[in-house]
Amino acid sequence: MDDLMAYIHSHMKRNLAVGLLCVKGKEGFYEKYGFVRRPTENYGAGMIREYGEDPERE
Is residue 6 assigned to a domain? Predict the structure, then answer.
């Protein structure tokens, strides 16, 4: 994770947002790196859409 954050910092432009999904109960790990839990007063819920084996049919 330290390497990933270093890469982001070395390549980021102004007004960058980085999103991630984590399994329930592991949020604290990412909070150490400055990520915040959602939803909050300023940010809505994280979202995901899953597809089956053939995404063209869904």
Answer: no
pTM of the model: 0.69
pLDDT at 58 over 70: no
d(CA 43, CA 31): 15
- Residue 56 reports pLDDT greater than 70: no
The residue range of the domain holding 42 is 21-58
- Between CA 40 and CA 25 the distance in angstroms is 17
d(CA 40, CA 45): 8
Given a contact cutoff of 8 angstroms between Cβ atoms, the answer to whether 42 and 14 are in contact is: no
